[in-house]
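<instruction>
Derive structure tokens from the sequence

<record> Sequence and structure tokens follow
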Amino acid sequence: MKKIMKWAGRSAWVLPLGLMISGCSSESGTSAVDENHGAKTSSTGGAKATAYSGAMQIAGGTYQLSPTICGIHKEGEAYDIEVEGPGTAPDGEKLYFSLSSTGNAVRLDLGVDGRFESSDRILTGGQHVTEPFALDVAGGNLTIAKLVMVDGNGQKVDDHASLKIDCSN
């Protein structure tokens, strides 16, 4: 590998990087368990995947969430949490939800329900768009008691939204 890298220069990083990225993606509908802490992760792609449950209360109604990925890993006292999956807006419209503890970000893409789909109609919150939130973890239950959410234009939608997700299935 070292000879290839010396010979090919920067382009030698393309193949190893692509292999690392594809190794992180599990599109087969399988579940993985973090052996150190027992947190389950499920990804869609197959016919049947584990669906976790959750709800986000935002001014105007409750957004029902059915995350298919619930990754929880604890390192010392810090958690690395990634949750995402489809859901339904109060009016029945489909949506795609994502939560990242490391990015301190929550996002709802309205009108789409796929992992790599995006929408120009979003609701988002967290340290880079509104203000940081505190994520409480109790077993597989995740809670954000106060979350400031804005729309895609940066207009405040709610400054006391809340989120509860059960990743314990």
